[in-house]
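We give this protein:

***
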Amino acid sequence: MTRDDSLYYTPAQVERIAQNYFQIKSALYGFTKVPNDRHIFITEESNRNLLPMQEPRHARTPIDGKAKAQNSLELHCAVMDFEIAVQKLSERDAELLFKYHVFGTYTLEELCIERGISSKGSMSDLLTRVVKRLTRIMNDEQP
């Protein structure tokens, strides 16, 4: 039996899912609020010219509803696989993954101090191993 590589997650994909977890969940559940990290500062004079109702309408390509639904389904399945796989990680590994990739509240230096690791390279290797282990779990392979 041959393996279809398009149906498996790669470590880079898993890392991107972890880093964009909250944005993906927000998009899937239909929240339209702009994330807090995107601030647009407009002066009062330029604000009058940039009102949405004053912008000229441009022709847009038709939206392929089936493709959009398929993309949404695949994204939803990926997030579900991620959530299930994180529960199968050890508590220390899951905590490390959430602190660095999902929440992004810790730097490598802070994680090194917390874990008692002497170099950032060792911490980076540990994070890589955790992401690879998570990838194996998401692909239904043995950890």
Remarks:
- Residues 87 and 94 are 8 Å apart (CA to CA).
- The chain has one domain: 9-138.
- Residues 9-138 form one domain.
